[in-house]
Predict the 3D structure of the following.
Amino acid sequence: ETGVTQTPRHLVMGMTNKKSLKCEQHLGHNAMYWYKQSAKKPLELMFVYNFKEQTENNSVPSRFSPECPNSSHLFLHLHTLQPEDSALYLCASSQDRTILAKNIQYFGAGTRLSVL
Amino acid sequence: QKEVEQDPGPLSVPEGAIVSLNCTYSNSAFQYFMWYRQYSRKGPELLMYTYSSGNKEDGRFTAQVDKSSKYISLFIRDSQPSDSATYLCAMSSNRDDKIIFGKGTRLHILP
């Protein structure tokens, strides 16, 4: 158990659905991340929040909408997704984004998303 | 040239063998180097973390960094079937705090 919990573990949705992914960390960290992991590709950083403020958005389509209500919780709201968005979505947290020595990231188990 | 190159494998070795996993990189500013292990249907788990050049040992695992060659390695001694997983290298610099990951190498330890 890494201290980062993601729900649901699996999600199947149609292209017109709206769903949300949830991430919760119990490590007292201040930075949280969303990554996309597709087969045969490196982890793709999507969004970064540091002390609840979004500090990075890596040109992610607007059909993905993050929300960080506090340092322990992170959501990824999904709407009108495409089949190519099917992937493993990973949440991670680190102690402090701005201090590299404290930027070790701890990952959740991920949500396996299938878009039909 | 990609920032981080890692052979995706799969790499199959017999139980008890020494495993060598490697990554090359192009950005000379990288100073923090990490190895993550990812089991099937799980998220990546941090295995080793090193700063700058040199070796670091933790049990059966040794991480090695050669900044002059822009080459990092992870050695696994006395490999076990439970070591079968995908191993991802990752690195970051002081100039840009983004962590860059390799694609991962799939490792199979054969009993």
Summary: The CA atoms of residues 95 and 101 of chain A lie 9 Å apart.
